[in-house]
Amino acid sequence: MARQIVFTPKAAKPPPTYSQAVKAAGLVFVSGTSPTDATTGTITGTTIQEQTRQCLFNIQAILEAAGSSLDKLVSVTVVLAEEDDFPGMNEEWLKWFPSNPPARQGAKLPARIPGLKVSIAAIAEA
Question: Which tens digits make up the pLDDT trace of 107-120?
């Protein structure tokens, strides 16, 4: 399988420094995805639950554009601005993955972006 850049207008447009996702080697590598609305270009939600939900909607749209789905997620990296938001993020996460969740790791955002509480990157089977 040749390397393929994935883009969908149904998810937030990335900056010119990276792609929404790259499909290669039978996998889809989704870049860190913010809780940005594809239509307005603004961060959606003020709570960690709302922002986690929007990140997952964006990832879902990107995976679908790549011919994959959330059910095929293998590994996810959740990057939070504040450690205190971990329980709220998990609250929303469990609604999307009540059983057989993907592998997951966490990190802290290295930079402050006004209003941004979470970014999620993912790897899925193609």
Answer: 999 888 899 999 99
Q: What is the DSSP letter of 118?
A: E
Residue 119 contacts residue 34 (beta carbons within 8 Å): yes
Question: Amino acid identity of 3?
Answer: R
Note down the domain range covering 89: 4-125
CATH number at residue 97: 3.30.1330.40
Query: Are residues 26 and 1 in contact, defined by beta-carbon separation less than 8 angstroms?
Result: yes
List, for residues 64-80, the tens digit of each pLDDT value: 999 999 999 999 999 99
Q: Is 55 helix (H, G, I), strand (E, B) or coil?
A: helix
3 state SS of 68: coil
Rounded (5°) CA angle 19-25-31: 25
**Count of the separate structural domains present in the chain:** 1
